[in-house]
Amino acid sequence: MKKKVLIITYYWPPAGGPGVQRWLKFVKYLPGFDIDPIIYIPENPNYPLIDESLISEISDKVTILKQPIKEPYKLAGIFSKKSSKTISKGIISDNKKQSFIEKIMLYVRGNFFIPDARIGWVKPSVTYLEQYITQNNIDTIITTGPPHSMHLIGLRLKERLEVKWLADFRDPWTTIGYHKQLKLTKISKEKHIALEKQVLNTADQLIVTSFTTKADFQKITGRPIEVITNGYDYEPVNEFKLDSKFSMAHIGSLLSKRNPEILWEVLRDLIKEYNDFSKDLELNFIGAVSEDVLNSIKKNNLSNRVNEVGYISHKEAIVFQKKSQVLLLIEIDSEDTKCIIPGKLFEYMVSNRPIIAVGPKDSDVEKIIKQTNTGAYFGYDDYESLKTTILGHYKAFQNKSLQSHPIGLQKYSRKQLTMRLAELIK
């Protein structure tokens, strides 16, 4: 008989973006390890990104529970549809460029909705799930955040019922980069920290996606912590041809602070120095791009090389990963972002295309790229080495020999990662 486990998550198809992929794939493979996943999600969520194609990946045998949620972002849209939409996507303008409305919305979001805008869903969810868990003899629950309100649902259920609780942190809580932009008062900061500490010290098992996050959490709690990174799945794609241009693709949001000016400067200088490079370069941005990034690109005379594709389905993004000559991975240059390992990294790694990553030095991403031999990693001041690497890739492109040579990728497959999760559940 399969073991039943209740998974409490906000993001679920038709939600798009990286937040949905992790548990969609776990749920796909858990039945193969004698675990029957039951999903609890909001009935009427306000997802900033939609990807209808992901619905086809959900087995019709999976039990899905839904309860209504009151979404403050919908109300905020009455005052400023643009600001509410960008903030819900995590795109926050630089302080000096924020409008008055955006400043007010950030202040309200940070201080009136703790830990996040889905806090109002906690109480009705606990009432509903307490009865469901009791009636269906469920002894294990999993919460996954952000939004970290999901962990508060787990916390309240743990207080009321004798259940095993696994808390999965796809991103950190109080140390994540955007947390500092929420204009928190001292009291609000203390409340966030207190809630985080309570969750970390109450859950039976903590799961994190990076070793840096594990080390940070170990300073707060003695509870067991397991690192289960995101990973890749084998994605069938139709026939495709490599781009004829020297295409460099970034898949995902390019936030205001995720702006590698050193990269734009290198590309500007290579265009000046090499006529062929000037003719061949193409920049493809798949996902939202902030005005700050576009302005930096314009300043370096690269705007005519840019193709803003915008948000596309996950399946379409996989095709871009496989046909692009080079894949770009950009992270904010901050101590807080050393622990961030984007889910797309693992899909990049199996695309057979070389990765060029720019981010904070000594990050978890840097370690993984070096261990798997899937690309090159640069700090925000590594001008010469970045320039040399891009020029080397361009020459290999001209010789039709540009590709990556990965090693040791199997441990990052979704099935292998689910096996490790199953061991924790049992």
UniProtKB/TrEMBL annotation:
- Tell me where in this chain the Glycosyltransferase subfamily 4-like N-terminal domain is found: 106-234
Q: Which InterPro entries match?
A: Glyco_trans_4-like_N
Mind telling me what this protein is named? Answer: Glycosyltransferase family 4 protein
Gene3D superfamilies named among the record's database cross-references: Glycogen Phosphorylase B
Species of provenance: Flavivirga algicola
One matching Pfam family is Glyco_transf_4
Coiled-coil positions are none
